[in-house]
Amino acid sequence: MFRLLRENGPALLVPAAWLVVAATVLDAGQTAGILDATLRY
Questions:
Q1: Residue 32 confidence (pLDDT)
Q2: pLDDT for position 21
Q3: CB under 8 Å, gap of 24 or more: what pairs does 25-32 form?
Q4: Residue 2: C-alpha distances to residues 5, 8, 38 (Å)
Q5: Distance between CA atoms of residues 29 and 25, nearest Å
Q6: DSSP tag of 11
Q7: pLDDT greater than 70 at residue 3
């Protein structure tokens, strides 16, 4: 099992990293939108 993870790890980690980046960007956009809406009213 360790050998399988070692051989396929990079192929699994790159998409996982992109998912984390996308989630962070989307969350930052929502946070900025909430802050903008709060400051306008």
A1: 67
A2: 84
A3: none
A4: 5, 10, 50
A5: 6
A6: H
A7: yes
Three-state secondary structure call for residue 1:
coil
Structure tokens at 33: 């939108």
pTM of the model: 0.51
State the DSSP string of 18-33.
HHHHHHHHHHHHHHHH
Residue 18 pLDDT: 87
Q: Whole-angstrom Cα distance, residue 25 to residue 33?
A: 12
- Taking the C-alpha atoms of residue 15 and residue 39, their distance in angstroms, rounded to an integer, is 36
The pLDDT of residue 23 is 79
How far apart CA 5 and CA 29 sit, in angstroms, is: 34
